[in-house]
Amino acid sequence: MSLQNTRILFVKRPSGLFDPNETFKIVKEPVPSQNDLSNGQILVKNYYLSLDPAMRGIMNDVRSYTPPLAINELMRGNTVGEVVISKNSKFKVGDKVEGLLGWQKYAVSDGKDVAKIVPPPKASLRDYLGLFGITGLTAYFGLLDGKVKVGETVVVSGAAGATGSVTGQIAKLKGARVIGIAGTPEKCAWLVNELGFDVALNYRDPDFSKQLTKATPNYIDVYFDNVGGDILNLCLKRLAKYARIVLCGAISQYNEKLQKGPSNYVALIAQSGRMEGFIVYNYKDRFQEAISDLSKWLQQGKLKRRDYVVEGLENAPQALLRLFKGENTGKMLIKIADEDENVKSKL
Amino acid sequence: MSLQNTRILFVKRPSGLFDPNETFKIVKEPVPSQNDLSNGQILVKNYYLSLDPAMRGIMNDVRSYTPPLAINELMRGNTVGEVVISKNSKFKVGDKVEGLLGWQKYAVSDGKDVAKIVPPPKASLRDYLGLFGITGLTAYFGLLDGKVKVGETVVVSGAAGATGSVTGQIAKLKGARVIGIAGTPEKCAWLVNELGFDVALNYRDPDFSKQLTKATPNYIDVYFDNVGGDILNLCLKRLAKYARIVLCGAISQYNEKLQKGPSNYVALIAQSGRMEGFIVYNYKDRFQEAISDLSKWLQQGKLKRRDYVVEGLENAPQALLRLFKGENTGKMLIKIADEDENVKSKL
């Protein structure tokens, strides 16, 4: 009896809020064997899958930095795993790897866009989906783009998420005064007490707008926006001269049929401000430099991160919906299989 | 009998579309005489007043790059005129000057923020309100900010206005393909036939959106926005990778009680685009350099401009409203007095 693979396909393009049951289809098929692989290919057993807000974006049939998902395409996603069969001289069985291997337990790859990873001290495989992955690198390069200077005021929305929590900490390392915006008192407490943010505000508080004004007496020099919508609009009203808005995401808008534009954008003229879209892939040739810095800060205890792990690949569709509801603190991951399993004996 | 001065005061802060009769009050008072002036002061007879969209912005009591108008304040505006009395050693009677001297026939000034002007060949005094004034300098530096490269596609809205018409011509001089957006067939014809724009589109055409798509097969590298609103939103959908939006104005929104935000702003993320507010005063120390270039291009016949002159200071309130209706082609000016009048004999 052959080992079963689980793969999750994107089967229906949603409009507005996606329905996990309609959007995805879980299929079972045999895991490819040694004989099924061509020369140059590897078989990877995935341990963790990253869930990201951008996964909603690729469901739409619009022009973007990456092509939209095709119907019946394997759902895209970054994973970490281990090579269990190799017909590629660059990889050997047992190598730990990271790559865009999709929502599946086992993945066949030609080895391109798959990177071997060796976690440094205090780090784990799954950090390559979080701190050293797209979300951590986004925080690193996005903040660089924001050109934060010592003493400036930085506001981060989605601050308790994977990117926001790292962004705020790096801004502190750069000498800024950092205000985080999150959606629960627990998240706010984590930001201030554990991560060292100067202030954390709960946008669900009725007087949030007043709190934001009070927390930014010198206005906002850098606003790192993960959420869009009303929070972006409020922050626009508080811009300092020459303020920079790093547009990283707009999680509040991705599932809206009618997206909201920031009516206060004219403040960009009044304050000679800049609002700039940010895609981490533009910095691909500098990822190693960033990982080296992030790794150093992690070892020095200057950077903390938290994972929010959901067990079981089958639960990924529902978990993705929970990501948009803001249930996670830190990086949301799907645990597909135990790392310590002796994978070789199973094949 | 003393000579009468006419001054127009800002007397009521409007909400939404301003009413010229309610917003302003015309007052008559004696022109200050030699004895009324203190040491260091000059008296200027104004010939032309510049009308600018930004005049609506300063009516609002909001934080901006310049303080809002106070109630009963002389309405602000740039003028060109001639010194008729001088108690300031830097100015002599007969000097032609430009400055923020307000909506009045005669202005007393301490000489600060007033510049002596000597029009180069082919230029006139009133070019210091248009081509060499705030609107021309805005085109020059705004386009610089947009970092236009040879062969790129530049779209300019409000293209038949004072700033837009100069912007498009400079973009052509920089080797770009230039598409102008204006509001009448006559304006569009002027842009293409007289000013050398590659394409001009009338945003009032029912299929304007389709025309814009057709006119931008390689998408938009630089969008110079003078209007905001729906046109900004449409252009966001056509951004090329690394596109730059120079936010210069939002004339379509200034008189709206509820301003519209550009719901397609998320395209800035998808295309790593930048939207940056632009204030010409940030470049004050480089104005001379710009005027020298603009003057050279004018003399070489590479730059054309048109003035839309309304006679009589008393008509300025109504004319300002017409500016927002888009009645002007080129620079809107109020003619306050004839230049060739022998002013000295009158005092």
From TrEMBL, chains A, B:
- What keywords is this UniProt entry annotated with? Oxidoreductase
Check the record and name the InterPro entries matching this protein. ADH-like_C, ADH_N_2, ER, GroES-like_sf, MDR_fam, NAD(P)-bd_dom_sf
Q: Which residues form a coiled coil?
A: none
**Pfam families according to UniProt:** ADH_N_2 (PF16884), ADH_zinc_N (PF00107)
One molecular function GO term is: oxidoreductase activity, acting on the CH-CH group of donors, NAD or NADP as acceptor
Superkingdom of this protein's organism: Eukaryota
Q: Domain Enoyl reductase (ER): where?
A: 19-334
Gene3D superfamilies, alphabetically? Medium-chain alcohol dehydrogenases, catalytic domain, NAD(P)-binding Rossmann-like Domain
What's this protein's name?
25591_t:CDS:1
